[in-house]
Design brief:
10 strands; 5-stranded antiparallel beta sheet; 1 helix; 5% helix
């Protein structure tokens, strides 16, 4: 499976459109366009998570969880992570305690953080979770049902 974006390139700095608005940042807080191909046979749904493994917490930081994405989907348009924009999919809670997408928001520091979008192709039509699910729970529930994964990573930092 392959995951790409027209909003940013793998390994590239993310644009302001994807950056959080708050905590001293003036981003647009909009999820990027994402598209995927080479989906494995037997896929019945998808789950998407956005994780920052560089966050100064014991398990990183989840910025987005979206799941029960229909099996025939092959892309998410820009802004799909906003409340009311997910269609048939479910938006979970992120580590900000918000429902939906919350963009890049590293603490000041010299090194940029890595923001990894991971798509799980699942062998079940639903994970059986509700909108209170977190990114960590979505990945845990996906574990035994994942047929394939694909990832794309963007970077963002703010100097001290």
């Amino acid at each position: 499976m392959r995951l790409t974006s027209t909003t940013f390139g793998d390994g590239a700095t993310t644009p302001t459109s994807m950056v959080y608005r708050g905590f001293g940042l003036e981003g647009e807080n909009r999820s990027p366009h994402l598209q995927w191909s080479d989906v494995p046979a037997g896929t019945k749904s998808f789950a998407m998570v956005l994780h920052d493994p560089d966050a100064p917490t014991s398990g990183g930081f989840y910025h987005w969880a979206m799941f029960d994405i229909p099996a025939d989907a092959r892309e998410l348009p820009e802004g799909a992570g906003a409340r009311g924009a997910a269609g048939a999919a479910i938006l979970g809670h992120n580590d900000f305690g918000e429902k939906g997408y919350s963009g890049m928001c590293p603490p000041p520091g010299d090194a940029p953080h890595h923001y990894t979008f991971t798509l799980h192709a699942l062998d079940v039509p639903t994970l059986g979770l509700d909108e209170n699910a977190t990114g960590a729970l979505v990945e845990f529930a996906s574990g035994g049902h994942t047929l394939a994964t694909a990832s794309i990573t963007g970077t963002f930092g703010r100097p001290t």
